[in-house]
Inverse folding.
Protein backbone atom coordinates (compact mmCIF):
# COMPACT_ATOMS: atom_id res chain seq x y z
CA UNK A 1 0.00 0.00 0.00
CA UNK A 2 2.83 2.38 0.76
CA UNK A 3 4.31 1.83 -2.74
CA UNK A 4 0.99 2.63 -4.38
CA UNK A 5 0.62 5.86 -2.38
CA UNK A 6 4.16 6.95 -3.31
CA UNK A 7 3.52 6.23 -7.02
CA UNK A 8 0.34 8.32 -6.95
CA UNK A 9 2.09 11.20 -5.22
CA UNK A 10 4.97 11.15 -7.75
CA UNK A 11 2.55 11.15 -10.70
CA UNK A 12 0.60 14.07 -9.22
CA UNK A 13 3.79 16.10 -8.67
CA UNK A 14 4.92 15.43 -12.30
CA UNK A 15 1.52 16.65 -13.57
CA UNK A 16 1.86 19.84 -11.51
CA UNK A 17 5.36 20.44 -12.92
CA UNK A 18 4.04 19.90 -16.46
CA UNK A 19 1.30 22.45 -15.89
CA UNK A 20 3.82 24.94 -14.58
CA UNK A 21 6.06 24.44 -17.66
CA UNK A 22 3.14 24.98 -20.08
CA UNK A 23 2.43 28.48 -18.83
CA UNK A 24 2.69 31.15 -21.60
CA UNK A 25 5.79 33.31 -21.69
CA UNK A 26 5.58 36.86 -20.53
CA UNK A 27 5.76 39.45 -23.37
CA UNK A 28 9.06 41.25 -23.72
CA UNK A 29 9.35 44.82 -22.65
CA UNK A 30 10.00 47.61 -25.17
CA UNK A 31 13.66 48.12 -24.17
CA UNK A 32 14.28 44.39 -24.50
CA UNK A 33 12.72 44.29 -27.98
CA UNK A 34 14.80 47.27 -29.11
CA UNK A 35 17.94 45.72 -27.69
CA UNK A 36 17.40 42.50 -29.64
CA UNK A 37 16.60 44.36 -32.86
CA UNK A 38 19.67 46.58 -32.59
CA UNK A 39 21.84 43.53 -31.89
CA UNK A 40 20.64 41.82 -35.06
CA UNK A 41 21.01 45.12 -36.96
CA UNK A 42 24.68 45.43 -35.99
CA UNK A 43 25.31 41.81 -36.98
CA UNK A 44 23.67 42.34 -40.38
CA UNK A 45 25.70 45.49 -41.09
CA UNK A 46 28.95 43.79 -40.06
CA UNK A 47 28.10 40.86 -42.35
CA UNK A 48 27.25 43.12 -45.30
CA UNK A 49 23.60 42.10 -45.43
CA UNK A 50 22.36 45.62 -46.09
CA UNK A 51 18.93 44.73 -47.48
CA UNK A 52 18.08 42.70 -44.38
CA UNK A 53 19.44 45.54 -42.23
CA UNK A 54 17.00 47.94 -43.91
CA UNK A 55 14.14 45.61 -42.98
CA UNK A 56 15.37 45.52 -39.39
CA UNK A 57 15.43 49.33 -39.33
CA UNK A 58 11.81 49.31 -40.49
CA UNK A 59 10.94 46.99 -37.59
CA UNK A 60 12.63 49.33 -35.12
CA UNK A 61 10.84 52.35 -36.55
CA UNK A 62 7.50 50.55 -36.28
CA UNK A 63 8.16 49.91 -32.61
CA UNK A 64 9.75 53.32 -31.94
CA UNK A 65 8.98 55.79 -34.78
CA UNK A 66 11.07 58.62 -33.25
CA UNK A 67 14.30 56.62 -32.97
CA UNK A 68 16.91 58.89 -34.57
CA UNK A 69 19.62 56.20 -34.71
CA UNK A 70 17.43 53.78 -36.66
CA UNK A 71 16.34 56.53 -39.08
CA UNK A 72 19.93 57.67 -39.69
CA UNK A 73 21.09 54.08 -40.16
CA UNK A 74 18.33 53.38 -42.66
CA UNK A 75 19.22 56.51 -44.63
CA UNK A 76 22.88 55.46 -44.72
CA UNK A 77 21.91 51.97 -45.90
CA UNK A 78 19.70 53.35 -48.68
CA UNK A 79 22.61 55.42 -49.96
CA UNK A 80 24.95 52.47 -49.62
CA UNK A 81 22.64 50.24 -51.70
CA UNK A 82 22.16 53.02 -54.32
CA UNK A 83 18.45 53.50 -53.59
CA UNK A 84 18.64 57.25 -54.11
CA UNK A 85 14.98 57.83 -54.88
CA UNK A 86 13.96 56.12 -51.64
CA UNK A 87 16.60 58.07 -49.70
CA UNK A 88 15.40 61.37 -51.15
CA UNK A 89 11.78 60.53 -50.32
CA UNK A 90 12.78 59.60 -46.77
CA UNK A 91 14.59 62.91 -46.27
CA UNK A 92 11.67 64.94 -47.60
CA UNK A 93 9.11 62.97 -45.54
CA UNK A 94 11.09 63.29 -42.30
CA UNK A 95 10.60 67.06 -42.09
CA UNK A 96 14.32 67.49 -41.34
CA UNK A 97 15.56 68.47 -44.80
CA UNK A 98 17.81 71.19 -43.37
CA UNK A 99 19.51 68.77 -40.96
CA UNK A 100 20.07 66.19 -43.71
CA UNK A 101 20.99 68.61 -46.49
CA UNK A 102 24.18 66.71 -47.36
CA UNK A 103 22.34 63.41 -47.86
CA UNK A 104 19.77 65.19 -49.98
CA UNK A 105 22.47 66.89 -52.08
CA UNK A 106 24.31 63.60 -52.59
CA UNK A 107 21.09 61.86 -53.69
CA UNK A 108 20.38 64.65 -56.18
CA UNK A 109 23.94 64.41 -57.50
CA UNK A 110 23.62 60.66 -58.06
CA UNK A 111 20.25 61.21 -59.75
CA UNK A 112 22.04 63.63 -62.17
CA UNK A 113 20.27 66.73 -60.88
CA UNK A 114 23.44 68.80 -60.63
CA UNK A 115 21.72 72.18 -60.48
CA UNK A 116 19.75 71.44 -57.30
CA UNK A 117 22.72 69.63 -55.78
CA UNK A 118 24.94 72.67 -56.40
CA UNK A 119 22.44 74.94 -54.65
CA UNK A 120 22.38 72.71 -51.60
CA UNK A 121 26.19 72.46 -51.46
CA UNK A 122 26.52 76.25 -51.61
CA UNK A 123 23.93 76.67 -48.85
CA UNK A 124 25.75 74.12 -46.65
CA UNK A 125 29.05 76.00 -47.12
CA UNK A 126 27.39 79.30 -46.21
CA UNK A 127 25.77 77.84 -43.08
CA UNK A 128 28.86 76.05 -41.76
CA UNK A 129 31.47 78.60 -42.78
CA UNK A 130 35.00 77.32 -42.31
CA UNK A 131 33.84 74.19 -40.45
CA UNK A 132 33.08 72.17 -43.59
CA UNK A 133 32.95 68.40 -43.55
CA UNK A 134 35.19 66.37 -45.88
CA UNK A 135 32.13 64.80 -47.47
CA UNK A 136 30.91 68.22 -48.59
CA UNK A 137 34.28 69.00 -50.18
CA UNK A 138 34.38 65.66 -51.98
CA UNK A 139 30.84 66.20 -53.27
CA UNK A 140 31.77 69.72 -54.45
CA UNK A 141 34.81 68.35 -56.30
CA UNK A 142 32.68 65.71 -58.02
CA UNK A 143 30.10 68.31 -58.98
CA UNK A 144 32.81 70.59 -60.40
CA UNK A 145 34.21 67.72 -62.46
CA UNK A 146 30.79 66.84 -63.87
CA UNK A 147 30.00 70.49 -64.66
CA UNK A 148 33.30 70.90 -66.56
CA UNK A 149 35.05 73.11 -64.00
CA UNK A 150 38.18 70.94 -63.99
CA UNK A 151 40.42 73.60 -62.49
CA UNK A 152 38.23 73.87 -59.40
CA UNK A 153 38.06 70.07 -59.17
CA UNK A 154 41.88 69.82 -59.27
CA UNK A 155 42.23 72.38 -56.49
CA UNK A 156 39.72 70.59 -54.27
CA UNK A 157 41.30 67.17 -54.82
CA UNK A 158 44.75 68.52 -53.99
CA UNK A 159 43.38 70.07 -50.80
CA UNK A 160 41.75 66.79 -49.79
CA UNK A 161 44.88 64.74 -50.50
CA UNK A 162 46.99 66.91 -48.20
CA UNK A 163 44.95 65.93 -45.14
CA UNK A 164 44.70 62.15 -45.53
CA UNK A 165 46.88 59.11 -44.99
CA UNK A 166 48.56 58.01 -48.27
CA UNK A 167 48.04 54.36 -47.33
CA UNK A 168 44.24 54.66 -47.06
CA UNK A 169 41.72 53.57 -49.66
CA UNK A 170 40.26 57.07 -49.89
CA UNK A 171 43.68 58.41 -50.94
CA UNK A 172 43.79 56.07 -53.96
CA UNK A 173 40.24 57.02 -54.98
CA UNK A 174 40.98 60.73 -54.75
CA UNK A 175 44.22 60.25 -56.70
CA UNK A 176 42.31 58.54 -59.52
CA UNK A 177 39.81 61.41 -59.66
CA UNK A 178 42.65 63.94 -59.63
CA UNK A 179 44.36 62.28 -62.61
CA UNK A 180 41.11 62.31 -64.59
CA UNK A 181 40.56 66.00 -63.87
CA UNK A 182 44.19 66.76 -64.82
CA UNK A 183 43.80 65.00 -68.17
CA UNK A 184 40.73 67.03 -69.08
CA UNK A 185 42.37 70.25 -67.94
CA UNK A 186 45.55 69.55 -69.93
CA UNK A 187 43.55 68.82 -73.06
CA UNK A 188 41.62 72.07 -72.74
CA UNK A 189 44.81 74.09 -72.19
CA UNK A 190 47.30 72.50 -74.58
CA UNK A 191 46.09 69.10 -75.73
CA UNK A 192 43.67 70.30 -78.39
CA UNK A 193 46.39 72.51 -79.91
CA UNK A 194 48.67 69.50 -80.31
CA UNK A 195 45.80 67.55 -81.85
CA UNK A 196 45.21 70.36 -84.35
CA UNK A 197 48.90 70.49 -85.23
CA UNK A 198 48.86 66.78 -86.01
CA UNK A 199 46.10 67.28 -88.63
CA UNK A 200 46.92 68.00 -92.31
CA UNK A 201 47.39 71.67 -93.24
CA UNK A 202 44.52 71.68 -95.73
CA UNK A 203 42.10 70.40 -93.11
CA UNK A 204 43.18 72.89 -90.44
CA UNK A 205 42.91 75.85 -92.82
CA UNK A 206 39.43 74.79 -93.89
CA UNK A 207 38.37 74.39 -90.27
CA UNK A 208 39.70 77.83 -89.36
CA UNK A 209 38.27 79.63 -92.40
CA UNK A 210 34.84 78.01 -92.63
CA UNK A 211 32.22 79.35 -90.22
CA UNK A 212 30.14 76.90 -88.19
CA UNK A 213 26.93 75.78 -89.92
CA UNK A 214 23.73 77.54 -88.84
CA UNK A 215 21.37 75.76 -86.52
CA UNK A 216 18.41 75.88 -88.94
CA UNK A 217 20.34 74.15 -91.71
CA UNK A 218 21.23 71.39 -89.30
CA UNK A 219 17.58 70.88 -88.42
CA UNK A 220 16.64 70.88 -92.10
CA UNK A 221 19.19 68.21 -92.94
CA UNK A 222 18.10 66.15 -89.95
CA UNK A 223 14.46 66.34 -91.08
CA UNK A 224 15.50 65.49 -94.65
CA UNK A 225 17.43 62.46 -93.47
CA UNK A 226 14.48 61.30 -91.41
CA UNK A 227 12.10 61.72 -94.37
CA UNK A 228 14.40 59.81 -96.72
CA UNK A 229 14.81 57.04 -94.19
CA UNK A 230 11.04 56.78 -93.78
CA UNK A 231 10.38 56.68 -97.58
CA UNK A 232 12.94 53.99 -98.31
CA UNK A 233 11.24 50.62 -98.38
CA UNK A 234 12.67 48.04 -96.03
CA UNK A 235 14.81 45.39 -97.63
CA UNK A 236 13.15 41.98 -98.01
CA UNK A 237 14.31 39.35 -95.59
CA UNK A 238 16.97 37.02 -96.98
CA UNK A 239 15.80 33.65 -98.21
CA UNK A 240 16.38 30.83 -95.85
CA UNK A 241 18.95 28.49 -97.30
CA UNK A 242 18.68 24.76 -96.82
CA UNK A 243 21.48 23.33 -94.78
CA UNK A 244 23.48 20.75 -96.68
CA UNK A 245 23.59 18.47 -93.68
CA UNK A 246 19.76 18.14 -93.82
CA UNK A 247 19.58 17.30 -97.57
CA UNK A 248 19.46 13.54 -98.39
CA UNK A 249 21.99 12.05 -100.75
CA UNK A 250 21.09 12.37 -104.43
CA UNK A 251 18.62 15.24 -103.86
CA UNK A 252 19.29 18.65 -105.41
CA UNK A 253 17.28 21.50 -103.76
CA UNK A 254 15.08 23.24 -106.34
CA UNK A 255 15.65 20.55 -109.03
CA UNK A 256 14.58 17.23 -107.57
CA UNK A 257 10.74 17.01 -107.41
CA UNK A 258 9.33 16.89 -103.92
CA UNK A 259 8.23 13.52 -102.50
CA UNK A 260 4.61 12.40 -102.59
CA UNK A 261 2.83 13.91 -99.57
CA UNK A 262 0.55 10.83 -99.40
CA UNK A 263 3.41 8.34 -99.23
CA UNK A 264 2.62 7.61 -95.58
CA UNK A 265 -1.00 6.52 -96.35
CA UNK A 266 -2.20 3.15 -97.46
CA UNK A 267 -2.60 2.66 -101.19
CA UNK A 268 -6.36 2.26 -100.81
CA UNK A 269 -6.60 5.57 -98.95
CA UNK A 270 -4.64 7.62 -101.45
CA UNK A 271 -6.38 10.03 -103.83
CA UNK A 272 -4.81 8.34 -106.88
CA UNK A 273 -6.12 4.89 -106.00
CA UNK A 274 -8.24 3.36 -108.83
CA UNK A 275 -7.11 5.80 -111.54
CA UNK A 276 -5.79 4.30 -114.84
CA UNK A 277 -6.95 0.70 -114.08
CA UNK A 278 -8.15 -1.50 -116.99
CA UNK A 279 -11.64 -2.92 -117.11
CA UNK A 280 -12.22 -6.63 -116.69
CA UNK A 281 -12.84 -8.71 -119.83
CA UNK A 282 -16.08 -10.56 -120.71
CA UNK A 283 -14.81 -13.75 -119.16
CA UNK A 284 -14.47 -12.10 -115.81
CA UNK A 285 -10.71 -12.38 -115.72
CA UNK A 286 -8.66 -9.43 -114.75
CA UNK A 287 -6.58 -7.45 -117.19
CA UNK A 288 -3.41 -9.35 -116.66
CA UNK A 289 -0.56 -9.56 -119.07
CA UNK A 290 -1.31 -13.18 -119.99
CA UNK A 291 -4.96 -12.61 -120.77
CA UNK A 292 -4.22 -9.54 -122.84
CA UNK A 293 -1.75 -11.41 -125.03
CA UNK A 294 -4.13 -14.33 -125.56
CA UNK A 295 -7.05 -12.10 -126.53
CA UNK A 296 -5.07 -10.18 -129.09
CA UNK A 297 -3.62 -13.32 -130.61
CA UNK A 298 -7.01 -15.12 -130.99
CA UNK A 299 -8.28 -15.38 -134.67
CA UNK A 300 -11.60 -13.90 -135.74
CA UNK A 301 -14.40 -16.38 -136.38
CA UNK A 302 -15.66 -16.61 -140.11
CA UNK A 303 -18.87 -18.52 -139.52
CA UNK A 304 -17.65 -22.06 -140.38
CA UNK A 305 -15.47 -24.30 -138.41
CA UNK A 306 -12.33 -25.73 -139.85
CA UNK A 307 -11.19 -29.23 -139.46
CA UNK A 308 -8.37 -28.16 -137.33
CA UNK A 309 -10.73 -26.77 -134.75
CA UNK A 310 -12.90 -29.92 -134.56
CA UNK A 311 -12.25 -32.13 -131.65
CA UNK A 312 -10.78 -35.49 -132.48
CA UNK A 313 -12.89 -38.53 -131.93
CA UNK A 314 -10.42 -40.32 -129.84
CA UNK A 315 -6.91 -40.79 -129.02
CA UNK A 316 -4.87 -42.63 -131.63
CA UNK A 317 -7.79 -43.07 -134.14
CA UNK A 318 -6.86 -42.98 -137.75
CA UNK A 319 -9.04 -41.74 -140.54
CA UNK A 320 -10.17 -44.05 -143.16
Amino acid sequence: MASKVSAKSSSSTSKIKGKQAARPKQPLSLPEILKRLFTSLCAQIDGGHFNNAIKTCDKILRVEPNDADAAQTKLFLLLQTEQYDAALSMVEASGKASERAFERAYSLYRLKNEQEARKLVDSIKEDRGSDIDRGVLILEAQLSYREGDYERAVDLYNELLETIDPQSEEYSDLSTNLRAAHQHLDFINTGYLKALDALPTSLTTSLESNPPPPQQAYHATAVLQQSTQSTVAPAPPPEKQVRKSHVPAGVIPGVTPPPDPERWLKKTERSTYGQGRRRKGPGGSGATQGSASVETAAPVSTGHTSSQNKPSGGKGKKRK
Remarks:
- Residues 144 and 152 are 6 Å apart (CA to CA).
- DSSP finds 13 helices and no strands in the chain.
- Confidence is low (pLDDT under 50) at residues 283-314.
